[in-house]
Design goal:
Blueprint (H helix, E strand, L loop, with lengths): L7 E6 L6 H7 L5 E5 L10 H5 L4 E6 L2 H7 L6 H10 L1 H6 L2 E4 L5 H15 L8
Parallel strand pairs: 1-2, 1-3, 3-4
Amino acid sequence: MKTEKQTWIVGIVGPCASGKSTLISGLRVDSVQFRHIAQEHSYVPDMWQRLIHPHALIFLDASYSLTCLRGQLNWTEAEYAEQHRRLSHAREHTDCYILTNELSPEEVQNQVLDFLRKKGIIGAECQ
């Protein structure tokens, strides 16, 4: 009897320009769907759970000054703080928090893969 392989859903949240899209575009892991959850734009604190209900939640973060450089954003510190407020529920429930300030995209990817291995979502052979 053939059994179907489980598809794991991994949610990715964080403020604008924290590296969410870069992470998702750089990871291709069999049986894992990486989903960007735009929680930073929602007034519903637990939207990340309602829309996707992921098996694991990863929170990418970056400083205000770095988000301005990375995303070429023209936003205020108050707008950045508001995104963090909107993300607070997700931050409280995250399974993996990564501050991306000093990390390359590859280093962020490696931290995520290490986390997924420890959680048992992927095997040791996944690179």
